[in-house]
Amino acid sequence: MTWVWVIASVLISAAAGITMYRMLAGPSTLDRLVSLDTLTAVTMCGIGTWAAYSQDSSVTYAMAAMALISFVGTVSVARFRVRDVEKPRGGRGSR
After folding, report:
1. pTM: predicted TM-score of the whole model, two decimal places
2. For an engineered disulfide with 70, which of 11, 19, 40, 56 has Cβ 3.0 to 4.6 Å away?
3. Is residue 42 assigned to a domain?
């Protein structure tokens, strides 16, 4: 049964890595916000996997706290964000 936990941890780590790349390379604020929400969900999946592996339900309180805090943070950022400024396209001197 150990191989199930190894596969789960590898997949969760890969998802976190891909999400971090999207957060760093995201062209807009909303892309970064979505990747932050995704990273929070992946973290909660990791905590849930750890709770199942260790058979310790005390870490589920951390999952509930992360869900509540991430929801409030996402709504706040989405409500009060400043629009991104688009870069002009074209060569030198074009308008």
Report:
1. 0.77
2. 40
3. yes
